[in-house]
Amino acid sequence: MLQQPSNSLILIRLGIEAYRENILFVRADSNICTSEGSTLPTRVRISGKNKSIVVTLNPVHTNILKDGEASLSEIAFQRLGVMEGDTITVSHLSPITSLSDVRSKIYGNKLNDDSIKKIISDVNNGLYSDIELSAFITACAGDHLDIDEITSLTKAMAAVGKQLHWDEKIVLDKHCVGGLPGNRTTPIVVAIIAEAGYLIPKTSSRAITSPAGTADTMEVFTNVNLTLEQVQEVVKKEKGCLAWGAMAELSPTDDMLISVERALDIDSEGQMIASVLSKKAAAGSTHIVIDIPVGKTAKVRDEKDAIKLQYYFKYVGKSMGLVVESLITDGSQPIGRGIGPALEAMDIVAVLQNATGAPQDLKEKALMLAGTMLDLVGETGKGKGLEQAKQILESGRAWNKFQSICTTQGDFKQPQYASFKKEIRSMVSGTVVEIDNRRLAKIAKLAGAPKSPGAGIYFCAPLGTKVLPQQMLFTIYAENENELNYTLEFIAATTNHIVKIE
Amino acid sequence: MLQQPSNSLILIRLGIEAYRENILFVRADSNICTSEGSTLPTRVRISGKNKSIVVTLNPVHTNILKDGEASLSEIAFQRLGVMEGDTITVSHLSPITSLSDVRSKIYGNKLNDDSIKKIISDVNNGLYSDIELSAFITACAGDHLDIDEITSLTKAMAAVGKQLHWDEKIVLDKHCVGGLPGNRTTPIVVAIIAEAGYLIPKTSSRAITSPAGTADTMEVFTNVNLTLEQVQEVVKKEKGCLAWGAMAELSPTDDMLISVERALDIDSEGQMIASVLSKKAAAGSTHIVIDIPVGKTAKVRDEKDAIKLQYYFKYVGKSMGLVVESLITDGSQPIGRGIGPALEAMDIVAVLQNATGAPQDLKEKALMLAGTMLDLVGETGKGKGLEQAKQILESGRAWNKFQSICTTQGDFKQPQYASFKKEIRSMVSGTVVEIDNRRLAKIAKLAGAPKSPGAGIYFCAPLGTKVLPQQMLFTIYAENENELNYTLEFIAATTNHIVKIE
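YS: structure for the whole thing
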């Protein structure tokens, strides 16, 4: 290697938050700007004591920085592990060769194992700008990744992160492909499985395009921001956990890819399978049950697509050494009544407490999933899993286990409603014959979910409900009046039905 | 409409240059941050006296801003037309509905006229973030746009900008699809056509993925940053111009799309046709000649692709009311000897001055293009255009016209070499049988072109050259030693040939 040009700079904290972007602020008249400067965003490598990261250069034309000073965006301070007063050195960034593989994908070519490894390694090392990540995500979206590419992607994503190893031979996990509002079975399933004596080190994501992810809902109850070490401690004590933070360590690139998918509001098949299975593999899971809700307005719209997903999950799982069983479930309407973190949390409490009026659909679905998991690994004989799960839930043991897991994670809080609400009532009489899950999700998001945990929808008009004029269909909760108003404006402008009554 | 939340803030200039990104810096404890805050980049609308733009919010956690103060990235100050001390108001941004059309395209669906109009209008209004622009570019890249979509895109791009109108019935223009290093015919052609008495209000782009665009080369000679009014003045006086700046007004979205294409190093067919023809239409051109070089390492690799491009240009042109004639030309090797802004400028001067040793290939190609244009509109009879062009060039009238155009644009400077150089010599004897245009372009870019105008390659081993050991193949010019070294490192690591000698 030739010698790289290098510049030493002292850090000043300007305190600028640029979200996920690593930014280096340097005087426009400094060496580094005049040698690197261009009309294109320039990316350079900076090094602290032990680490180096890639940053985008933002020249500064005033005296908020003096000669020899530099600043970083808040996240870059964190990632580089430096503080105000520390010294950094700046060096030229070599061309990122994996970008030619991304371009090849954009032009419709198939990527091989090596290309995908290189891309994921470069993404993991922070070499990709948001523009480049977006191009990679877009080129792989739709059905542009075939099953070999998905397998390569899954392996590459699992390989760049940390791995968990367990003493037990059986480690369970579950996942729902999503798209069904309120379908928050995971906390109930984890409590049942852990109480049944199996390991279930569950890590869950936040919402990508939905009003709540399991991590958002669990955060209503407890601390979900666990390190990998904390996950191990909680699971050692409780057999199960419901964590979020550790995911970033298990499959670190997933977080970066998901943040761009979220910004684009897309959630594509290949990426989703790789995201799910790379984390399960890295978490040391051996047996996984996948819930695939199918419905006209769910994420998966028809059974043929669901069967393809089943096949993909099984095939990619097998090449990762995992046993994967997928269930195709009813996705025609929300599960439970709440849509949004706290509202879903309330449903979970009701089911776990065996409360009168607890949503039966949520209870039944959680039992079916837990039962399938127990059947997959259990010694009680096939078909006995459901019975075992039911016994654990109805005896109250699952509720105790759930609270115990929460407490071990650091806290147990009861969910709260947001302050503002508006009831949406029927104009007509008739029977509920169709529900638009996507519009319900959109409404819950406009109302502030998941950012405002108490925001969302309390839904009380499932399919088949006989309604009279002025009967309540759902209630919208929001944490401020503006968000409530935006939501009502959206509903007023919606020409198609949200809940169809005939 | 419901009332929007709004906040008044006084502007301070922090002087932060974030390239093309509109950034609003606001205290993290301000209303606007606490009400909009999230883990996703938040985009809001800000308004000055007469204008409003969309910006990305960057919260600031130190006292570089006081209560009630805000700052903008340098480009946002420009775009909003405000200064330090001015007041802005901040308001909520409504959801960008055209993004669902982009998502639909990502999933492989065809976009209709209306969808494309909406997308381009939103891009033009600055509503798209870089991530979103990148997704749109990527989804349309490869051959993902069909001819109807390209036509819609061209119309939409031409419609959002300003339009030029001319008194003459015939307004000529030319364009090269590029990919061939050194192929800088435009300045010569414009001088000939203007001298022949036809209007040719030429606007040219900077390099997208090449070592130089015509605008980069012309900037070596003169000011290219003309406003639309200045273009009109120059053309009124000279019949022709060689401008860059006005392009942004003629098809303003093109610049935004190209900046993302440049960052991704892709230059796709549909986008290219729309980019070219939207500008020609907006510039009031009526007759256009397109140069399509074809070669193994040119942008267009085989004649079938070139024929498809011919058809696309003609079809889309026709639906815009334009006469478009495309020529398929030899793309097997560079044209002229220089690759890089100033080095190409030297070739142009040599041809225009009819200097001994001027590159004949550049001269012949420029004459062929000018001749075709004259035939397309001329009254001298088909086939006489070439003769007329030759007479204008060889008499020295084109050289006078060229200098006159430059002077009218504000300046006339002679091109200069960069300070550092290295000669690359042959190891063997034989005949040059193949040249890799892409590697040559890459070398010129690594050497600093187009950012450093004097950087690039002087190439002196065209196809068929008989070479002896130690004979010079090309010379690399760079403006600093580091760039020269990077370039040599790349050449040393290149296993395939750049110039193949047998």
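YS: worth flagging: The two ends of chain A are 74 Å apart (CA to CA).
IM: good catch. Also Residues 203 and 305 of chain A are 26 Å apart (CA to CA).
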